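Tutorial sheet, problem 5. The two components below are modelled jointly, 1020 residues in total.
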Amino acid sequence: MRKRDSLFRSVILILLMGLVPFISISQDSDLRPVTNKYVIKNATIVQAPGKIIKNGTVLIENGIIKAVGSSVAIPADAWVVNADSMFVYAGFISGLSNIGVEKPKDKDRKDDRKLTGTPSYERAGITPGNTVRDMLKPSDKSVADFRKLGFTASHSVPHTGMLPGTGSIVLLGGSNGDNMVIKDQISMYSQLSGADGVYPNTVIGVMAKYRDLYRKANQARGYQSKYNSNSNGMERPTPDATIEALYPVVSKQLTVAFKAESVKDVMRVISLQRDLGFKMMLGEVKQGWDAIPAIKGTGAPVFLSLDLPEWKEEEKKEAKEGDDEEKEEKEPTAAELEKKALEARKMEMIKNYYTQAGKFSSNGVKFGFSTMEVKSKDFKTNLLKVIENGLSEDKALAALTTEPASILGVSSLMGTVEAGKMANLIISDTAYFSKDANVRYVFVDGMKYDYEVKKKKKKKSSGESGEEAVDAAGVWNYTTETPQGNGSGVITIKGTPGDYSGTITVSFNGSTNDIQDVEVDGTNVAFSFKLNMGEEINVDITMDIDGDSFEGTLSVAAFGSFPMEGSRDPK
Amino acid sequence: MKKINIIIALLLTVTFVMAQEKGSVLIKNGTVLTVTNGTLENTDVLIRDGKISKIGTGLSAPSGAKTIDANGMYVMPGIIDAHSHLALDAVNEATNPVTAEVWVGDALNPLDVGIYQALAGGVTSAHSMHGSANAIGGQCETVKFRYGEIDPDKMRMAGAPRTIKFALGENPTRVHGSGNGILPRTRMGVEHVIRSSFQQAKEYMQAMDKYNAGKGKKGFKGKAPAYDLRMETLADILRGDIIIHCHSYRADEIYMLMKVCEDFGIKRLVFQHVNEGFKVAPELAKWGAGASIFADWWAYKFEVYYSTAYNAAILTKNGVTTSINSDSGELIRHLYHEAAKSQRYGGLTDDEALSLITINPAKQLGIASRVGSLEEGKEGDVAIFKNHPLSIYGVPMMTIVDGIVRFDRENDADDMRIYPDPEEKIDVTHWQAEDHDRCMQNTEFLFHE
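Model answer (structure tokens):
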């Protein structure tokens, strides 16, 4: 299977080569598949957590699971997948994400300084009337990235602001945005993010504004309904589309999906909920272990983040112990002791992140997983580590299938492999929750996506990490967030791995600078450059390259390091 | 290797007193500085379920309660800081000249290790305040330093009166006048912002009251003014439900705000910083306004040049309820030294000097019936010192909040962080000193042209 970088690139290739050998491409284009009947034969079918059929067969027709069992008649016109030794699961559901939603570009905002206290609703990040439905793009990279992992549906929400808009249940596939939508208006997405430079700028502003808007909406809705029943002699209600968009929230018909990563945010959101009484689900919770009693008290379901801090203790420890054996045992210095103690506390903290899901499970909190921040390449590793740390495989599967389906009210459509449900399936070559498992097929709404197992690359003698050095050459557009505002520019890298040179442009002062000391280690590229900001300062850049995109950091000694990301221009 | 592991194991057994907010403890044979009832030698203080149940001699501890031998030690009420920005994730919502609706209680950070550092200075309570970027800033929160708790609600001093931050002078005029080109650019402008806000709130309150009075009547067709949390909050000030704590330096502006409050019938007012308070001390006393000051810190901007270290003494001798505050994560650790300076300069008595950091700030925050002195029935907030707290040799040994020992110098682990950063780099020596003055935090972006 070829890498599907982008439809655009593929189309160009097809035109150039004059042939159409890519089965996969038909799936992203308007070409209809040859058949809409599929049979998955002789597989281990995990119908639901703990419910397994050995040597079973699944029949799919027109996007629906027609039959599941050990004796299913196979229609002659079906495409048969011989799934001997393979495993079939219900497609995963992301409890909260931005899958399929393009990130809006950072606008170069030249605000009227006189209006920082009275911005428009839109500038203030208050757009409850927006719906994610209007923002969906099946071609967004996240769709293919998460589908490859086994996700077939997602509760997707818009990106920015304190009230970015309503979320929908969407499929990870489809010919257009509308086509992706299974159920609209699932939630009112909310987050405690300030509006960057205008009111509400800080968390205290956002919390106050939330209370203000909620009570405004409550009051206005009450008056409107009185007016509707008998308007005679009554002043006309003041129309306000933004406030009106909150009516379903104050009438508790629409659940608020609140993003709350840190324990502090979780507690803040809970206190807001207690004040106002809206229906709630919590999303992208990273630090919730100490808040379990408080969360339980609200009865709100939770989506736990799988974006976890890096756990790299083991190898390090081994290496160190090896060193110690060689050396004579010395009394540790005070500094060494302190460092060791700090490392131990850090490790203890990291473990909390990995044992969190197990704790939620044993405390009986209803939860699924959200994938807002986790990088698709880390999903599987993190999930397995969470299972290692106290979450059973069945519960993990439930948190990816039946639980989100039930929380989001789509259990009749998805979450299990049962006749009558949507044909959203994962087929892996062995049990999914093992390290070596590879996803071979994913069905989304009866549409088949197949994935070839990548052959393991041979270790290169030069690369110490064992990973093949990435080809970083090209023109990279980057953006970075610093306290001085958002910066952007272009990194141009020329040459071959081990012999790179190039330039970087910086929007802060419009300069172009030569890059130096380029180092490549696996998918990581690091370099530095000198930036003239009155005096010359040294800037270090690291890029973690994943295909044609990267995430990295920009660090300036004494100022700290800031996140950056970017993508490579097509060659 | 084994040795290291044992030491690490010891370091890791940092025992937080979690999920328990009230305790019982008997402090034996100390020199008890009650502040309000003089000094009692060789006296016991018994705290039962978080409250001081008995002060006397020969008391015995109830079963299960810890006994502390305070022989040769000084036992004083927990220190109260009337002006702090500790344990807050946001200090200024600086985008508008009036942001009465915001509340720093929404941004409490119980994980701030600065709380523990303040406990190590004998402090048990603080007034965590909004900053001074706007003429009418946000509401503040009176907190108790129950370090070890995760839930911000457990930091709050439940039942303490609501307070709000106002600001006069250079800060609000710099942010909104010079920074944004809007009102207020001058001291006159600040007065105007405050007056017009009160006036709007008054009209809002009257319209709301009228609506509420009528809405139950048959055939009522009226429409309420559109709900506005800002106006609701300002109306609560007019109703007397919120104490104003106003950042101020110059005598003229201090006098101005007293006049404005008079015009709107507002009676609960405390001035913060008040460096020129000594010039209007009789007026402050007559009005009944409090003054919370620095002992000897000034000249950090133009309006703070005309100052004196005699300020605390002059205000006190004129009958103004005066406190000495920190406004800083560093100063808060030695407020007892700051109070002692009033003796060096103004010759205040021990009780007068100690009042500056105990009962007087409690009065200014409206919590004097609960804390601020050692009296039976009050809350069990206590600081135990080796040597007199007003002596340069005074060392805080133990700090007790609601009968629970939250700091103990004899049992003071190296790493008292509650949530270490799972991504921190440990090989770098890294000390991020807190800014001395967080009054203007979160406003930096407003100064860019």
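Marking note: DSSP finds eleven helices and 16 strands in chain B. Full credit if you identified this.
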